[in-house]
Amino acid sequence: MRSIVEIARMAAVVAVVALFSSMAVADPVPEPSGLWSGPMHGETPETLSGARVLDLAALEVLMAKRPLLLDVGPADRKPDDFPKDGLWLPTHRSMPGAVWMPGAGAASLEDAQEKMFYRRIEALTQKDKRRPIVTFCRPQCWGSWNVGKRLVMKGYTNVGWFPAGIDGWQEKHETAVVKPEAGWSTEAPK
């Protein structure tokens, strides 16, 4: 015969299991109708209408087609308390061959910067809106989502969004130091 303590323990376990199984799973983050203008770091949608969401395996397959890899991760900022006479030499690691346009995923870009962005993408794709383009940043980065959305809204038809970003890539692959795209400001857009 079971003791009262054993029965109470079993009842407590059943109650805890029931509690956790009845808890609703958090609703996925919905896609905004336009570009996301909130904080650039945070939970992102699981989808990007008009684009393909890529996991690492899908990206590895797509690499055979030599997609345009578009890194929109931010540039490192010199700390305010960094010594004025200190040598500041930040580096940015990305996928080998990636084009780095820090901050290009901001919802609002200055007109000149937005025009430069589209001109550069047009040049890099040789005006082929069907060329594969992969946007990425870091995990939970709205910037790469926004750039994917921006490209879809401009008529690009083969856009892939890699939400795992450089962190997901470097779990199995090497990275390379990249420089910002020529003429592209590393300052955060206003």
Summarize the structure.
InterPro entries: PQQ_CXXCW, Rhodanese-like_dom, Rhodanese-like_dom_sf. The protein is an alpha/beta fold and 190 residues long.
Alpha-carbon distance between the termini? 72 Å
- Gross morphology is globular
Domain count, please report it. 1
Which blocks of ≥5 consecutive residues have pLDDT under 50? Answer: 12-24
Number of DSSP strands?
7
Oligomer: single chain
Signal peptide: 1-26
InterPro entries: PQQ_CXXCW, Rhodanese-like_dom, Rhodanese-like_dom_sf
Pfam family, one: Rhodanese
Domain Rhodanese: 119-178
What's the layout of helices and strands?
Blueprint lengths: L3 H19 L29 E2 L2 H7 L5 E4 L20 E3 L4 E2 L10 H14 L8 E4 L5 H12 L5 E3 L3 H5 L6 E3 L12
Parallel strand pairs: 1-6, 2-4, 2-5, 5-6
Antiparallel strand pairs: 3-7
Keywords: Signal
Protein name: Rhodanese domain-containing protein
Organism: Mesorhizobium plurifarium
